[in-house]
């Protein structure tokens, strides 16, 4: 299900296009949500009879997929994303693992999102858990926090989560790779057709502290990932800092050089990424406005 059927007033076409271009490879090459983080989210829903999830910036459905595994009793999921191609990919990935859970996918911006209107005799649905994974920095944080406060169930939790990209990671092989990307694209960290990457104006914790969601606990899950040269190249094609479009006709030349560089650094073994997946788990204090 997608809505609205009329054009979305502030849907930025270049932003939707940026993410759409990556949809096909995203599900294959992007790391999922660590099971320990999914368990933490599942715990917030464990005692509810028909738990519901709203996932903002759902992309190919990585968060719903991990949560369905940790909590098979999940009753209803609504996934929101700017990109219809990402949502199509999410439907394909989630349909086989839904079991008894109902899935709705909504093409709109998180800042404008409203729950789907109920059918006659039905009540408005209210999410018990709202998640935003690797996507909050693309959004207007205060608007999203205010909107989710208005629509969430009284006892709901909000989780803002993510891990650094390979661009940020500090290891010999990621530094060498970043240097190579910069030789092709220039020194700044690109963000697709949008120019430079949006930098968080304020730490997410500060935005949460100033919102209704001010009761925040930070959870860090160490993660070690093993990459092959091939999976790194696939991952890069899904990113806003090294997607194929940025290189235009030089993309094949970039991939050839990157493959040679990574083959050399891997020397037949894995390329390791030691990182942490962070979950900011927020609730509202009594009387929060
Ligand atoms: C890096 S992906 C993260 C996807 C997924 N949550 C994950 O953890 O793998 C960011 C997603 O956010 C979506 N997005 C960006 N800005 C958005 C906005 N303002 N409202 C809704 N979705 C947005 C993009 O279309 C993209 O699919």
How would you characterize this protein structure?
- The chain is α/β, with parallel strands linked by helices.
- The protein is built from 11 helices and 7 strands.
- It has a 7-stranded mixed beta sheet.
- Helix 5 (84-94) links the parallel strand 2 (76-81) and strand 3.
- The protein is globular, with a radius of gyration of 19 Å.
- Mean pLDDT is 88; it is low at 1-10.
- It binds S-adenosylmethionine (SAM).
Compact summary:
By secondary structure, the protein is α/β, with parallel strands linked by helices. It is built from 11 helices and 7 strands.
Features:
11 helices, alpha/beta, binds S-adenosylmethionine, Rossmann fold, 289 residues, seven-stranded mixed beta sheet
Small molecules bound? S-adenosylmethionine
**H-E string:** HHHEHEHEEHEHHEHHHE
Largest sheet: 7 strands, mixed
Give me the CATH fold name: Rossmann fold
The helix/strand class is alpha/beta
How many structurally independent domains? 1
Mean pLDDT: 88
Number of helices: 11
CATH architecture annotation: 3-Layer(aba) Sandwich
- Please name the fourth-level CATH homologous superfamily: Vaccinia Virus protein VP39
Helix content: 25-40%
Distance between the termini: 32 Å
SS elements, strand count:
7
Q: What overall geometry do the principal axes of the alpha carbons give?
A: globular
CATH class: Alpha Beta
Rg, nearest Å: 19 Å
């Amino acid at each position: 299900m997608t809505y609205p059927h009329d054009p979305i007033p502030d849907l930025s076409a270049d932003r939707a296009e940026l993410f759409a271009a990556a949809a096909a490879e995203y599900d294959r090459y992007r790391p999922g949500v660590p099971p320990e983080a999914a368990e933490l989210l599942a715990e917030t829903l464990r005692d509810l009879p028909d738990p519901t999830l709203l996932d903002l910036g759902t992309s190919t459905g990585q968060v719903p997929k991990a949560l369905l595994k940790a909590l098979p009793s999940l009753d209803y999921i609504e996934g929101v994303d700017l990109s219809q191609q990402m949502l199509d990919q999410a439907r394909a990935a989630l349909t086989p693992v839904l079991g008894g859970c109902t899935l709705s996918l909504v093409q709109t911006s998180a800042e404008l999102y409203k729950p789907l209107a109920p059918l006659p005799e039905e009540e408005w649905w209210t999410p018990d858990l709202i998640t935003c994974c690797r996507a909050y920095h693309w959004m207007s944080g205060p608007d999203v926090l205010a909107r989710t406060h208005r629509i969430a169930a009284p006892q709901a939790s909000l989780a803002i989560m993510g891990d650094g990209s390979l661009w940020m990671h500090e290891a010999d092989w990621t530094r060498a790779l970043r240097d190579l990307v910069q030789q092709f694209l220039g020194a700044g960290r690109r963000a697709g057709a949008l120019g430079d990457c949006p930098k968080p104006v304020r730490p997410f914790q500060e935005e949460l502290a100033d919102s209704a969601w001010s009761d925040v606990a930070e959870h860090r899950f160490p993660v070690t990932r093993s990459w092959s040269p091939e999976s790194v190249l696939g991952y890069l094609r899904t990113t806003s800092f090294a997607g194929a479009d940025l290189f235009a006709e030089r993309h094949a030349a970039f991939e050839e050089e990157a493959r040679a560089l990574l083959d050399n650094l891997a020397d037949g073994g894995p390329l390791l990424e030691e990182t942490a997946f962070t979950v900011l788990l927020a609730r509202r204090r009594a009387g929060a406005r």
